[in-house]
Fold this sequence. Notes:
By secondary structure, chain A is mainly β.
Amino acid sequence: DTEVTQTPKHLVMGMTNKKSLKCEQHMGHRAMYWYKQKAKKPPELMFVYSYEKLSINESVPSRFSPECPNSSLLNLHLHALQPEDSALYLCASSQVVRAQPQHFGDGTRLSIL
Amino acid sequence: KQEVTQIPAALSVPEGENLVLNCSFTDSAIYNLQWFRQDPGKGLTSLLLIQSSQREQTSGRLNASLDKSSGRSTLYIAASQPGDSATYLCAVIKNSNSGYALNFGKGTSLLVTP
C-alpha cells in the first residue's frame, strides 16, 4: 500500500465544473509535489510545496490552483479545465525538498469532457 | 536543460533471464538518481536511489549503478519474473538550489513472459 493517498482515484468533469484533487501523507514529510502525466509520457512537475509554502510553480495555467492547508495535506483545485488537461495527476512527498526518495501516490485519473 | 534518455524503449524477455535497463543524462551535475517502477494506471514505486557520491545500490534482485562522469546509470534485474512486467523510469535531480524537480526519462516498458 502506498504511503501517499490520493482521492478520488478517477474523476470525470465538464469544462465548466469546479473540483478538487486531494493528497495526504502521514510520514512527516515537509515537501509535497504535484505532477501531471499524459499517456505514455513521463511525469512533469507542476508545483512544489516546502513547509506549506509554494516554492515552485512550473508555469502552470491558473485554472490549476494548489493549496497546502497543513503539512499532511495537499489539494489541487480545478476550474474551467480543457480537454487537453485530461491526464493522471500524481502527488508525491519527500522529507524536505531535494531529499530523496520521493514517495508517490497512485494518482487521480482525470478526464475532461 | 537536463535530458534523460532510456534505452530500450521496450523489452520483452522470457522468465528467468537477467536483464539490463539503461539510462543516460546530459548534465553530470546531478544531486542523485532514482529508479522507479510504474504499473499501468498506477503511481510510481521507488526502487532504488543513488546519491551522486555513490556508485551503486542493491535491493533484492535489483542492482543500480551510477557513473556520473559518463552520465550513465544501469538497472540490473536478476532472474526476471512475470511480476517484474512494468514500465521502469529513471529520474535525476539537478545539483542546484532550484533543482527540486525530478527529470524523468520516457521509461522502458518491460514484459517478462512465463
